[in-house]
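As a warm-up, study this chain.
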Amino acid sequence: MARRNRRKLIKNVRLTGIADKGKAVGRDEEGMVIFVEDGVPGDLMDVMTLRKKKGVWQARPETLIEKSPDRTEPFCKHFTNCGGCKWQHLNYKSQLEHKHKVTTDAFERIAKVEIGEVLPIRGCEKTRYYRNKMVFSFCSKQWVDQEILDTGIDIDFKPGLGFYRSGAFDKVVDIKECFLQDSFNDNIRNWLREYAYAHELSFHDPRKHEGMMRNLFLRCNRKGDWMVNIYFHILDEKVIHPLMEEMKSTFPEISSLWYTINPKMNDSTHDLEPIHYAGEEFLLESLDHVQFKISPKSFFQTNTYQAEKLYQTIATFADLKGTENVYDLYTGLGSIALYLANDCKQIVGIEEIEEAILDAQTNRELNDISNASFYAGDVKNILTPAFAERHGKPDLLITDPPRAGMHEDVVRMLLTLESPKVVYISCNPSTQARDIAILKEKYEVLKIQPVDMFPHTHHIENVALLSLRHE
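Now compare it with the structure written out below.
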């Protein structure tokens, strides 16, 4: 039996705010909540429902009746299809206001705590070309708009190199110009696409799991050095070496050139070993007074400019005097630990990914830091009473977990450790607020500082300072 089409047109929906994953939110005449793709708070529109999920309509715009005063013209021609910068149609001032509100709402709704001081969100001076790392995908099929298909004109369905269309795992939006990274990334990407066309190299087919060309990884530093890593499906040096040689001679800006073989069914790369082809084996980057060697697999903040603001905020909240014992959970390549090491007695970092800990040790030596130590393993398994006995009770505990937040066992261990201060950094205010709802048993929130790391997206970083209550 064919599935019943439940789509319906809802007229005159006024959008009033930002909701799940950056979608705009409004209500129908009966008060039913509607999440609308590509909407802007203040818009009045007719919307077409797509599905109902947990009692909420998911919808797309059908007719824009009245534009919000906050709506602006997207600057990228790929905006409607790419999905990478979903808020380009919302002016930047309003983006910051909504991110600030999302953060404070999470603390009010989930953590249910009073905040001593809410500092204004720290916005970006660079709202374009701010990323230092990008990954593009080769695909045997590129996305073509339905409007173009409906014209009936002949279309050359060439393979594409760009980003997968949201909801279409087997088609990419062929990106000619991207505003997320220095424009040099366009030169490399467009050259490589044409090279692959000219040499009849096959693009990856995610359905059949075949095709030579898989991914293009680009990383740069603020000096203008570039690291390039090309992912191939199979090891065929007769194809790979001529390509790498021509790329090396065409782009002298590439200071570190790599390739990686990925024969797997998916694009995950953490278990793959890059092959160094030419140039240096790392890029050098600095965050204020600390230098970092960054390799192809390094976990480094993707917005270097805002990372400095973020770390300055962490240092201000930490307010170290030089005598403290500091724990840094989910330390990554140790960037926060190394940034603060000169201001404390000792600092110890824990990180699950072993390669990141190797990077932390390399960068500790690079910066001649002797009071930082690092451990590889799951935080919930390493952060134990025995660990605290060996390293001493922390005077400050810093935690910067992934989007899912901390494991509840880790949160409970924080309550046991009773560090006088906790600085909690999060890329997801909702899971941060969930964890703080448990920590409020012993802690109060002195202040929070939202930081915008990713303009034109709904993503937001937040730093919270917690203080142990003295009953």
